[in-house]
Design a protein that fits this description.
Length: 186
Amino acid sequence: MNGDGYVAKPMSGLWTAIKSGFKNVFNFRGRMRRSDYWMFIVSVIVISVGLLTGFFYLTECLPLYRSTMNENSYELVFMLLVVLLAIVFFIIPLLLMLGATVRRLHDFGHSGLLAWLTFACLVSSIISFSVSIIRYDMDDPSELMVWVFIITCILVIVTIVLCMKDSMKGVNQYGDSPKWEQRADI
């Protein structure tokens, strides 16, 4: 307990934090405790990396079928796989993390605008990168693509650093603290 009359509530378990994160995926109101946030974010990343690994394993078979396809069909399949890869393994996990990040920023009194801005930059970077792969012009990225990538990196770093902050004690404009409770008996 601190000298200000607040005591930390017990931490949630891993499965409770993950269940709560998935249950509140599209909840952009309220607050989220730091430990719950990081357990949820890491679980989404681990699941995405596992699925991505399986995806790459399955696409290893694609060159085996190249000899049976004409060149246009093979390029179409390749383009569809790149778009599928971008959507399933990058954009959907970002959507899952968006609500949690907004609630985490609320926990110490910040607006969720930074999370939305970071999400928009990440999605635009993923889309522009996917289009570059499809067009085979990765050797000469556009100046806009480079600036979007730089801004995205800065926003991601700022968001990560902010999400490491401790919870604000008491009530703020987004609700009660998920971590701290005030003891009336002290």
